[in-house]
Amino acid sequence: MSPANLTTRTLFLSVGSILQKASGILLIFFLVRLLDKQTYGSYQQVFYIGGIVYGLFVSGISSSLYYFIPRLKHTTERTQFVRQTILLTLSLGILSGIFLWACSFYISKYLHNLALITYLKYYSVYIVFWIGSDYFINFLNTYNRYFQSMLFAMVESAVNMLAILLPIYMFNDLSYSFIVLMMVGICRYIVYLIYSLMILGVSYRRLFINSREQIKYSFPLMLSGWADLLGNYIDKVVVSVYYSPVVLAIYAIGTIRIPIWDILVKPVNIVLRVKFAELIEKQDLVKVQKIWREAIRKQAIIILPVVFGLWIIAPPLFSLFFTAEYRDSADIFRIYLLDKPIMVISFSVFPLSMGRSDFLFKGSTIFALSNIVLVFLLLKPLGIYGPISAVVISQYIQAVFYVFMISKYLQIKPRELLPPDIIIRALVANIIPAGIVYLATRYIHGAVASIIISISLYIMFYIPILIKSNLLYKEEVSFVLKKLRIYA
After folding, report:
1. Cβ–Cβ contacts within 10 Å for residue 204, how many?
2. Is the predicted pLDDT of residue 5 greater than 60, yes or no?
3. What is the DSSP string of 220-271?
4. Burial tier of 481 (Cβ tally within 10 Å: 0-12, 13-18, 19+)
5. What's the predicted TM-score (pTM) here?
């Protein structure tokens, strides 16, 4: 696989993620203006519950495509394996829908919000087909249809956004949004299924192939997903139980998922996972370390300025984008950003490349347990800031575990996994412009002016420091400028 192919595939995945996440943020932009805080808090509760149910039932079946499809030599075996995955994901979707429907009353009662009963019953039908079609994007990627994967992800995001917004705008009732979303989920599943079968062909000779191996590989991922689920949602569940939907709405906006992972990290991880699996099998750790250092350097020069920059402009950005009613969310968001520098180091690549998905389960368990303990320890002294602080601290505890386990397995020193020269230079290259911008813009009034001046000053100081510290090469700058001129 040539570097050009790796770059192209990463580019398609990144572009798809950018547009997909942009539509998600745009959706929130409109929702906070169309719904009052109480109703928006209920909306967030439905999607938090949906996310929990999704995590409980997905179980890593779809991710197993990345592992098995490249290893199956015959077209017939690959075809039957995909069909098997389609059947398994639909079965899990049906189970999840039944579970959510049955629990809707008890969940609503526990959260002291009976309006959720109707929403959750509609959503339980949607989640059947959401989980049922979970295989589709991974299937396209494993069949090297990255461009189609990007297009489907874009269309899906746009349709989902319209399905939620149009009914609210037309009928001023959130219930209609969930009815339309349910219908969209059914139609999407049918389209994905037909398109998948068109790619695979229409033969139905064998239904199952290597199902035991698939489930065996997926089981640790499922356990890891459950632990991650517990760790990632415990703060939101605690806020839902101890605070009103109005406060939850503020907390939800403050913990809005910035798409750094999906846009910058996840596409790189998918490409590196395949490459590292090949190199680790050949015991070529020298090449692994070389690619790894370059991946960290390139991710650091993009991710860190985004994190530092967002921390600086959070108050004016939230007032501008989410209205002044959600200005308090900026303080929560600033705490939420404190663990995002960890994204520079893609720890999950190694366990999956080594075939040690149990490492992810152990790491997720440590994250979940530390998060549960810290959430309740910090809730009383820090109030609404306690749960998000617990999440940040737990992320760093998990990172320490991964460094120890991966370096021990590969028999390398931790400094080879965490190259200090790159990390320190990258942090310094951002701390200097961040400090200058923070001091220079403290007394600027007006959200738009503050954001524009902050970004301009940051870039003005950041790029020269990057080049001077040898993190960004002049050849790379020339290459980017040349590409921009070509596209222009």
Report:
1. 10
2. no
3. HHHHHHHHHHHHHHHHHHHHHHHS-HHHHHHHHHHT---THIIIIIHHHHHH
4. exposed
5. 0.72
